[in-house]
Each structure stands twice: as C-alpha cells, then as structure tokens.
Amino acid sequence: MESIAQAADVARGTLYKHFSSKEAFIQHRFHHDLMVRRADMRAVMAAMPTVAERFLYMFQNEAAYAESMRPYAAPYLYHRLRGQKIQQHPIERDSFEGLIADLIRQGQQDGEIVTDTSAEQMAEYVVFLRLATLMRWIAMPDVPLAPLFAEMVQLFLNGAYRRVAPTQSSTSN
Asked: In whole angstroms, what is the distance from residue 42 CA to residue 49 CA?
C-alpha cells in the first residue's frame, strides 16, 4: 500500500479509507479497467454474427488484459475467493457477469442458446468457469491464457455431453 500511495501521491491512510487491502485495490483496478474496455468490446461484438464469436472475442480481450496484469492475478484471485460469497462482490455482478448475461440473452433471442435456464444463472456459471480457468493459468506460468479461455468457452457452449453415440469398432460373431 505504501508503493501505491507514493505513486498516487496520497497518504497511505487515505488509501485505507477506500480499500481494506492492496488486493481490494487490485480488484477495484481490474473492474475499473473492464468498465473502460466494456463499451468498445460491446461495439465490436455487436457486429459479430454468432454468440460463439462474441464469447471468444470477449475472452481473447480478457486474456490479453490478464496477461498484461499477470503479476496481480494471483493476489486478485486470492482476495476474490477467500471464503466470501459471490453475492458480496456486487461490482463483479455489475461488470463482468452483466456483460456475460447480456451475451447469453442475445444468444437466447437468436436461438443459439437454450432458454430452459435463465441468462443470469448461466452467467453465474461462466463467472465460476472464468475464475477456475484463471486459477489454472496462474498454476501454469508458461502457458498463455487465451487457449485456456477458448477451451472454457467451448466447454460452456458445447457442454461435455457426447451428443452422438460412439460407433462400435468390434464386430459380432
């Protein structure tokens, strides 16, 4: 917090009036940056024809940002997951989860995503998939994040259930 205070040219006590810890400050920074990028991302995604393309674009954007902030990713996740319920993080629901829910709703309206589960419920699942993917990425320092997010998006959009029965390779006698 001392380094942050010096860089911001404020007293350390002033920072603590707004942020309980440096991790809380990092979380605020991540969400602020998302809000700044959000309008541009929405404009680009609006021109994309499929929900899959929109999701992949959004997570490619997210991966590029996370890669640029990699030293802060682990403290962010630690703060984000340290035993608090997701409902206690309204900024997360207002920013990232809201963007995901909007994409899902559009996919539902376009007939690309099932409607038997609400967009809000599916968005919550995606938030947890994202957090799990970020944890996996942090544990593998030499692996880029974009391919992990691409796998995550495919899993969410396509599911893990085999839709076509496997062919039998053995013949009966």
From this structure: 13
